[in-house]
Write a structure and sequence with these properties.
Length: 252
């Protein structure tokens, strides 16, 4: 398990496009060079970072958040299919939370078909897409930008979301497995938890690559989700766990 200081190192690297110099990390973390060196050695042993002369870089893994530009192109047909299935739960005059995920990004062009829609999002990529549709009112959260994911996180964003009550939240996750729903980091998970708490219905959009994958931080159990929308039947054991917790699974 990572220490609080090691989590800060990982977050700093994520927010700095995946790498940073030793001097940059010392300036941001306010720790000694020897302490930083010990933490980096332990993170390297855990295959989470790779040290190089004068700096360190992230080693991308299933538990880490990859750049949104890369995620947009992965499993694009599956994400588009899931978005079209999810659109069945849209209607006129809705207030909707959207996270910053690449799967939810595919929902944006469909939303324009509906009238009097208000969106609240922490996704810069989502707001950029919706900017083309003047009939949609879009609120974007204030807070700290995560450059790789083009999302906004932090306490300002959480407090902003609490000002709204939404008909639904549409979101994705890093992983789904028998232990629950997981995110790539705690900052994203806390944003999504807040959206869920302020929404009447919660829809989780996950393609089959998320099944039995791994994530860094647990978002919640399936009992917190109303409907899980995916493109392919889940493994029987996982489906049983999800159904027993009262979450509906939609594949077609």
């Amino acid at each position: 398990m990572l220490t609080i200081r090691q989590k800060k190192i990982i977050r700093l690297l994520e927010d700095n496009s995946g790498s940073a110099s030793i001097d940059e990390m010392l300036n941001h973390l306010y720790i000694s060079k020897s302490t930083l060196r010990r933490d980096l050695i332990n993170l390297e042993k855990a295959s989470m970072v790779q040290r190089f002369h004068g700096g360190v870089g992230l080693i991308e893994s299933g538990a880490m958040e990859s750049p949104i530009s890369k995620r947009r192109m992965q499993n694009l047909a599956k994400k588009s299919y899931i978005a079209h299935v999810a659109s069945r739960y849209l209607h006129d005059n809705m207030v909707i939370f959207l996270d910053s995920s690449s799967t939810v990004n595919e929902l944006c062009p469909i939303i324009r078909q509906f009238k009097n829609i208000t969106i609240v999002t922490n996704g810069i990529n989502i707001a950029e897409q919706l900017n083309f549709y003047q009939s949609i009112i879009c609120y974007i959260c204030p807070g700290v930008i995560k450059h790789k994911s083009l999302s906004i996180v932090g306490q300002y964003a959480i407090d902003f979301i609490k000002n709204f009550t939404a008909d639904a939240v549409f979101m994705s996750s890093k992983a789904i497995n028998k232990n629950g729903i997981f995110e790539g980091d705690d900052a994203q998970a806390l944003i999504k938890r807040t959206m869920m708490s302020q929404a009447i219905k919660t829809y989780l959009l996950c393609d089959d690559s998320k099944q039995e994958s791994s994530g860094f931080f647990k978002l919640d159990d399936y009992k917190a989700i109303d409907t899980l929308i995916t493109n392919y039947p889940l493994e029987p054991e996982l489906s049983k766990i999800i159904n027993e917790q009262g979450c509906q699974i939609i594949t077609t």
